[in-house]
What we know:
By secondary structure, the protein is α/β, with parallel strands linked by helices. It has helices at residues 22-28, 42-45, 48-58, 75-88, 99-111, 119-123, 188-206, 214-236, 241-253, 268-280, 284-299, 304-315, 324-341, 358-364, 381-393, and strands at 11-14, 33-38, 62-66, 92-97, 134-138, 150-157, 160-167, 175-178.
Amino acid sequence: xxxxxxxxxxxxxxxxxxENDVGQIVKNHGGRKVLIHYGCHNAQKSGLLERIKRSFDRxxxxxYELGNVVVNPRAMKVYEGIELCREREIDFILAIGGSSxxxxxxxxxxxxxxxxxxxxxxxxxxxxxxxxPIGAVLTMPAAGSECxxxxxxxxxxxxxxxxxHAKSEAFVPVFAILNPELTRSLAPIDMGYVCxxxxxxxxxxxxxxxQDAPLTxxxxxxxxxxxxxxxxIVFEDPDNYEARANLMWAGTIAHSDLYGAGRxxxxxxxxxxxxxxxxxxxxxxxxxxxxxxxxxEFVKNHDLTRMAQFxxxxxxxxxxxxxxxxxxxxxxxxxxxxxxxxxxxxxxxxLNIDSVHISEIVKNIDFEGNETIGTYRELNxxxxxxxxxxxxxxxx
Length: 396
């Protein structure tokens, strides 16, 4: 195992109806003037927004609203939120939704105290020492953002979408409310997208060159198996509370870094997908569903033992110890079958992206100084082009 330093400061409040207490919870954390930040429709249509506003009214908290956060949250909404917070002297932000809303809330919270353009935090990696406190009411699993130091924002620069990442301990929410019933507003296809995202969160820690970390290996495999089993249940029985509860808890753990402690991590699938969604504004989970099987196929031979272990322990493939390549390949096939059964896209064509755009996507990948990405197996431009070509051909 590698050396590590692990600290989690987010209070997790779990179960049915817990969002109805959010007013008192925010007040206990010092909130007096709150910005309620949310997405486009679900919070209003479900009645959740009204319940939260009534909760604030009961404890005498003043609140303001900023809605219409979109997938791949935009910088313009962040600028709007920063201005509103400064103008109204907001002292707390409550995000209602998933990772897009929480990421937007983090950027606003950090930007309020930043003396300059908040975009510098992302492009010039300016360090944030202070931000407004943030709470989250999750309406979808897999966000991960509710416990993490990370945020990703997209900016339209002269007609080109630019997606940037920032990281700060100041971004970590002080609490997150997890009520699995609130995920019921998600269509099955959207539930599929977020489950693919959490699956990739785990694999980014699982496929690691770190040796002798069996405990975190088994934690990873347990989460992955939980996602596979319960995602299929939700597709068959959307009202199954226990399946949704397991997925919501798995989604939070999947990005908490508990099982990534002491392990080298590799975020290549997310980096490649980010290049796709920046150009084509695709849903993150949809892009990952296309990239992941192609990536695993490409790196399969880097560590056949680990790939075969994944196949055996997560997808119950019978391990052929005399032919680990076959076991590994069968595991990738089972993964593709699983994604297909959940109506996930199988190829770039399913995302309405033509193969002629592969070179453009590769140019948009955020390579490191040595012109590679990844740690498990370093990938250069030719490698990424090969992965995208595989992704283009899958499903045909």
